[in-house]
User: Which sequence fits this backbone?
């Protein structure tokens, strides 16, 4: 069975994607900071009969990243790495003139440094896979200038660039930066708590990610809404 590592997998997009892959028979290594919620997710996915390793921890911890890859190796390797865990830098979001530099450092550590560290750790196994792929979850804030989204957007723009360069340096892999579009997630609620407008559930965009995995287009940046419109 193919094996995926998914960070930030206890809820939101990470959980929705993990469930879709489990339904397809993928074995999974899941990460999140909150152990209890992560274990509940792993137990819920067990109904599909696949192997699920749930490792609570912080992706900025190198030992934790090594543990994720070691767990995947025990399952047979790494065919897909999904860097989904994210940090905002401030909750709620604030203008740049009020953004604490420690908050910006945290966003860069979680959204840029940790994904690269996990890629570096997993690369030998990804290269061995006949269909190795990396999905870096991006944001429209990486490409557009929205007030108060400067720190988070800058970190996601940096992740986009790392994804593009990795795609050039690793032609045997597929490296996709994916903007999932608007979603109703805890992350968005923490970013803009006063926005009560309804937003799509994360499960609504999962078919876009599955389309990438199935069709394996060339490495690049994609927007989930556009992928969903393709025939």
Assistant:
């Amino acid at each position: 069975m193919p094996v995926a590592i998914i960070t930030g997998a206890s809820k939101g997009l990470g959980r929705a994607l993990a469930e879709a892959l489990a339904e397809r028979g993928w074995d999974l290594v899941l990460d999140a900071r909150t152990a209890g919620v992560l274990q509940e997710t792993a137990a819920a996915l067990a109904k599909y009969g696949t192997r699920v390793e749930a490792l609570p921890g912080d992706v900025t911890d190198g030992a934790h990243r090594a543990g994720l890859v070691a767990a995947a190796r025990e399952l047979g390797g790494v065919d897909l790495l999904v860097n989904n865990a994210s940090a905002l830098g401030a909750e709620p979001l604030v203008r740049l003139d009020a953004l604490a530099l420690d908050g910006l450092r945290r966003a860069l550590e979680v959204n840029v440094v940790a994904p690269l560290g996990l890629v570096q750790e997993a690369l030998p196994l990804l290269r061995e896979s006949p269909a190795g792929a990396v999905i870096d979850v991006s944001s429209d804030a990486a490409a557009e200038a929205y007030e108060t989204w400067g720190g988070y957007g800058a970190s996601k723009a940096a992740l986009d660039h790392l994804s593009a360069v990795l795609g050039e340096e690793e032609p045997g892999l597929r490296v996709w930066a994916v903007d999932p579009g608007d979603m109703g997630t805890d992350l968005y609620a923490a970013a803009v708590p006063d926005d009560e407008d309804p937003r799509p559930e994360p499960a609504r965009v999962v078919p876009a990610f599955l389309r990438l995995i199935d069709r394996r287009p060339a490495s690049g940046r994609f927007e989930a809404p556009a992928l969903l419109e393709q025939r």
Observations:
- The radius of gyration is 16 Å.
